[in-house]
Amino acid sequence: MKVKNWSTLFGVFVQAGVLTACACQTNVPVPEEPPETRPVFQPQVPEPVKPAKPREPEPKHIPGTDAEGNPIAVFYFRLDDATLSSTNFAALRLHADVLNDDPSKRIAIEGHCDERGTREYNLALGDRRAGAVERFLLSAGVDQSQMETVSYGEEKPVATESNEAAWALNRRAEIKYK
Amino acid sequence: MRELVAILLVALALSAQGFEIIIDRGTDNPTVIAVVPFGGLPEGREIAAIVSADLLRSGLFTPIEPRNMLNQPTAPREVFFRDWQIIRAEYLVVGTVDRSDTGSLVLEYHLMDVGSERTIASKRVDSGIEWTRDLAHFVADEIFLEITGVRGAFSTKLVYVLAQGVGTADARYRLQRADFDGERAVTLLESPEPILSPAWDARGERVAYVSFESGRSAVYVHTIGTGQRTLVAQHKGTNSAPAFSPDGQFLAVTLSRDENPEIYTIELETGVLRRITQNDVIDTEPVWMANGRTLVYTSDRGGAPQIYSISLDTLAPRRMTHQGNYNARPRLLPNGEHMVYVHRSSDGRYRIAWQQLTGRRELRLLSETRLDESPSVAPNGSMVAYATKRASKSILMVVSIDGQMTFRLPSSEGEVLEPAWSPYLTSSIESQDL
Predict the structure, then answer these.
(1) Which of A157, B43, B119, B372 is deepest in the core (most CB within 10 A)?
(2) Which residues of B touch A (CB under 8 A)?
(3) ipTM of model
């Protein structure tokens, strides 16, 4: 909710800026679409100033966001598999919105694996996992130039134990904003 | 007093080696050999100890420890064969070490057959500019050849990755080169980002590897003698799994620049790329057959990783593994008839498997642990180095090709990964018949 309000303010601010620009430079194209007013979620951006009073009751949870209201940026995979689970789609659509709203934004999509199996195969598997995220975002309208995929295979685990729990955490793709 | 000094020297020599020899399974029929501490200079004891340790690691020999020898002759005329028959030695090595005018070590040794009571070989070996360990490994190679008919691989090197702080901000990766037994390690490259997939060229002069030092994967070729590095592949996506062609002019690599991990060859002089595999699944981990016209590699084209061969002329793939749903990372044996690879067994363990390339393709498992990977074969085909985990720590093991003998390489500093066994290397050591 707080993010939504901030986004609305941000949209108004952008609109004001565009209008100002138009007043002095007539050849600057005016956006055909109305200013963005739907929720825009910006991961890894410092918390904006909170508005004094929320205008409407805060929703409990928006699909695809974490406890802080930021879009989920880590996506987990099954063993030997590079297929995105449909439970990740909501979060990925939120990232697509962020990237579509600001074409200057760039992300790295990292692909990771658990330690099992061979290292080179895991580099390739991590590549496929990052690629699955990239393809989803492409299909959601994100420009190829905004994305770079990097596979680390099993080289950068978040959990270093050798058990099912650690392995589940390591089989992942991560979106990182630059 | 002199005796005490000698005993201390033995103790030092053994502790300096620092390796751990684990005998997992009883060897079927190892050859019993006695390498008697060589006379002359004190180095003689150390050299004999290294020769014994080398022969033990091959899995084909059981050396007799000096304390179990009834006496310790240093020349054929001092040998009483009955003393060696009693302790069931089949072969006996005696000799002396001296220093030449130029300061090199000179070992004169005699290899004797205890059963027939005769001398098989008498040699004079000059270390030249090399070190005591080089001399010892050279002699072990010669003895191995005399008895088995196969050249020993004890003078070869391993390249591997030493990683510290993996998964933390302080991670350090080092590409190390060491003797096959893990001794005398030197650092070829150090980086805060991962290094993997080291691979030697056929002459032992260059190593190709993947380094993430730029933040993304890239393939480099590193000339060991000069330290010179050449960036060979840094395309969009993943650049990995380099393998030198037998003539050293090409690298096979895996690139995902065209969407999907596929195998390419790169002509090193021109940089010309040729795409070898064409599909929408993973293809990776190529190695070259000795003819230079066929690659053996891992592919998901059947739905799960299996090993295939592909002709560079026809680009027609042929499946080679059929047992289980995870067979990957092939490495060919120098005899051209067998390969080793990583196999996932039905209990979910990843182990090193051995099988024939053609004909009967039943696999044989060489390792007994559960997270085994990165097999690499000694140039004589007698041993396989691989990485595994023990107590959440990665270690290197070497197993004899018959799976009978396993030893662990020393690794006190961190995680050791990705062993790559060198080809035979040139040496200035010279040997003459006496």
Answers:
(1) B372
(2) 166-167, 194, 196-197, 210, 212, 215-217, 236-238, 240-241, 254, 256, 259-261, 282-285, 298, 304-305, 326, 328-329, 342, 344, 350, 371, 373-374, 389, 392, 417-418
(3) 0.88
